[in-house]
């Protein structure tokens, strides 16, 4: 049997395959550039992501040792390779040479006018996307390396400090954190990070404490209302005490909210009870367990006038334990826990083997896994026991 | 590290690529194994106006249909960008992914091949294993 090696390469390509007319046939051949072409990959994705990709709003993010994720503007997707045992012949359009940067086929002449579509590679599988939660724990870790504190403010030469490690600009974070731009922004907001001299920083807790104490002190001194603080006045007074305007304004944003009051003119802020009270509770509890009564007493002393230090605001910030008739309280903040569900539940059950729903809920309600409801999460990571039908369910480790 | 996914063709102009998919493997005769380039595999025929196709490979005929993909697939090409200054001896070759095509349908042959003539079979039975030989010319 005569075997002809140099098949003509026609103008067919993928177009011909996709538009085969009834009662006709086309010839399928290996492309003159046929090979493994490991640089060619297939990516399966949702139709609704297509515009993002085609308009170049999508990037792959991750360090060499991490599994790559694909990020759109607002979402993060894990990339999974799915292999196939079928033979998948990949056929490019006829003008492929441009795309592959190759010279045109020398034998493009088609002597008998038959249309040929050429296979460039046999594809071993494709990549699929699975929406995942952004990997933001690393963001917290990075920003905690070098929090912004008072020493840095008093240091005149900030240049010197910037040579230190642990400073990350937006573009550094994008390189290092596996999250979309939108999720990274939200993550920075949730951590109350602030951009100082081009770097995203967390404020040192002691520094924040100094600022808040100074603010509360001045509220008393100047007869200000915690529900109506004039921004200009506050910034002016605290600046005189050595606190940079930008940082104080950031604290107003974190611990207060803007009040729209057109009569006063200028910007007015109201200090918010919850974040302020939580801050002072953390300071009181720092590193120790306390009798509940003593804690409440010390806490209420610290909280500014006009604010009610009620135990409810400490949901997700503290745990209590009973020792005989004595109740002791200690700091245990949901913000210090990992955001990966398996790690979160492991930490929780490490802390305390049994949880009532009322206790557990503040420590798990922020967990979000695409495609899994909060009930699903509980089913997956906890064992639920209910001693009797009307008893409170108890959650323990699986 | 961040890899930009680029699309030089732009929206609406992304060329469509095609896929022929069949079960098993197509094997060339041993003498051609290492130089498959330009070798003919077979002939794709659309006998009627329906989206039914036959694919003839050697003495075997496969029957299949054109099916739209549930989700589109993109053809990505990895492009190494050589950074001009190589810092600290680490070859910091940057990578970019370029979208060079989109696939929306495939012609799928999921049945076993039918023998066209009752000559001795070139290779084993099971798979769509067939020697590639010239069909025309």
Notable characteristics:
heterodimer, A: 398 residues, Arc Repressor Mutant, subunit A, 18 strands, B: 137 residues, mainly beta, 7-stranded mixed β-sheet, extended
Q: Can you characterise this structure?
A:
The complex is a heterodimer of chains A (398) and B (137). The N terminus of chain A is likely disordered. In chain A, the strands form six sheets. Chain A has a four-stranded antiparallel sheet, with helices on one face. Chain A has a three-stranded antiparallel sheet with strand order 10-12-11. In chain A, strands 13-15-14 form a three-stranded antiparallel sheet. With 398 residues, chain A is of the alpha+beta class. In chain A, a hairpin with an 8-residue loop joins strand 17 and strand 18. Chain A has 16 helices and 18 strands. The longest helix of chain A is centred in the middle third of the chain and has 17 residues. The radius of gyration of chain A is 31 Å and the shape is elongated. Chain B has a domain of 84 residues. The C terminus of chain B is likely disordered. Chain B starts with a strand and ends in a 22-residue tail after the last strand. In chain B, strands 1, 2, 3, 4, 5, 6 and 7 form a seven-stranded mixed sheet that branches. Chain B is an all-beta fold and 137 residues long. Chain B is extended. Strand 3 of chain A pairs antiparallel with strand 1 of chain B, so a sheet runs across the interface.
Largest sheet of chain B: 7 strands, mixed
Unreliable stretches covering 5 or more consecutive residues of chain A: 1-10, 106-111
Global geometry of chain B: extended
Radius of gyration of chain A: 31 Å
Structural class of chain B: mainly beta
Helix content of chain B: under 10%
Mean pLDDT over all positions of chain B:
80
Beta-strand segment tally of chain B:
7
Give the tally of β-strands of chain A: 18
Instruction: Give the CA-based shape of chain A.
Output: elongated
How many DSSP helices of chain A? 16
Mean pLDDT across all amino acids of chain A = 88
Q: Cα-atom Rg of chain B, whole angstroms?
A: 21 Å
Cα separation of the termini of chain A:
68 Å
Largest contact between chains: A-B, 75 and 67 residues
Number of domains of chain A: 4
């Amino acid at each position: 049997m005569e075997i002809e090696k140099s098949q003509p390469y026609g103008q067919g390509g993928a177009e011909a395959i996709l538009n085969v007319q009834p009662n006709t046939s086309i010839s399928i051949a290996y492309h003159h550039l046929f090979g493994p072409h490991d640089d060619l990959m297939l990516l399966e994705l949702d139709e609704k992501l297509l515009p993002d990709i085609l308009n170049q709003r999508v990037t792959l993010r991750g360090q060499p040792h991490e599994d790559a994720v694909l990020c759109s503007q607002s979402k993060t997707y894990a990339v999974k390779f799915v292999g196939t045992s079928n033979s998948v012949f990949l056929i490019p359009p006829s003008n492929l040479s441009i795309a592959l940067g190759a010279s045109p086929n020398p034998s493009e002449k088609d002597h008998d006018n038959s249309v040929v579509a050429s296979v460039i590679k046999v594809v071993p599988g494709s990549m699929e996307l699975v929406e995942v939660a952004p990997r933001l724990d690393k963001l917290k870790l990075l920003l905690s390396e070098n929090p912004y504190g008072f020493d840095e403010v008093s240091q005149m030469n900030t240049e010197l400090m910037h040579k230190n490690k642990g400073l990350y600009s937006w573009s550094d974070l994008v390189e290092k954190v596996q999250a979309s731009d939108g999720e990274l922004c939200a993550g920075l907001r949730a951590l109350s990070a602030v951009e100082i001299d081009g770097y995203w920083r967390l404020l040192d807790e002691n520094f924040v404490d100094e600022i808040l104490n100074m603010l509360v002190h001045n509220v008393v001194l100047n007869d200000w209302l915690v529900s109506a603080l004039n921004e200009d006045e506050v910034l002016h007074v605290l600046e005189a005490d050595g606190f940079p305007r930008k940082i104080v304004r950031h604290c107003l944003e974190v611990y207060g909210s803007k009040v729209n009051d057109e009569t006063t003119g200028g910007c007015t802020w109201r200090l918010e009870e919850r974040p302020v009270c939580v801050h002072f509770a953390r300071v009181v509890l720092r590193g120790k367990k306390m009798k509940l009564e003593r804690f409440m007493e010390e806490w209420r002393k610290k909280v500014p006038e006009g604010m009610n230090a009620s135990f409810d605001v400490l949901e997700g910030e503290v745990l209590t334990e009973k020792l005989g008739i004595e109740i002791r309280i200690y700091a245990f903040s949901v913000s210090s826990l990992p955001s990966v569900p398996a790690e979160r539940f492991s930490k929780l059950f490490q802390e305390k083997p049994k949880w009532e729903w009322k206790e557990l809920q503040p420590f798990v309600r922020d967990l979000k896994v695409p495609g899994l409801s909060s009930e699903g999460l509980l089913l997956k990571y906890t064992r639920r026991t209910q001693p009797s039908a009307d008893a409170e369910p108890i959650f323990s480790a699986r | 590290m961040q890899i930009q996914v680029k699309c030089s063709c732009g929206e609406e102009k992304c060329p469509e690529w095609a896929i022929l998919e069949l079960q098993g493997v197509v094997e060339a005769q041993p003498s051609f194994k290492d130089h498959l380039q330009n070798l003919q595999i077979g002939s794709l025929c659309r006998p009627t106006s329906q989206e039914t196709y036959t694919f003839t490979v050697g003495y075997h005929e496969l029957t299949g249909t054109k099916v739209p993909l549930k989700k589109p697939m993109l053809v990505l090409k990895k492009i190494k960008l050589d950074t001009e200054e190589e810092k600290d001896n680490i070859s910091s070759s940057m990578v970019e992914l370029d979208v060079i095509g989109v696939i929306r349908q495939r012609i799928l042959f999921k049945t076993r091949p039918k023998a066209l003539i009752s000559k001795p079979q070139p290779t084993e039975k099971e798979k769509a294993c067939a020697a590639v030989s010239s069909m025309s010319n």
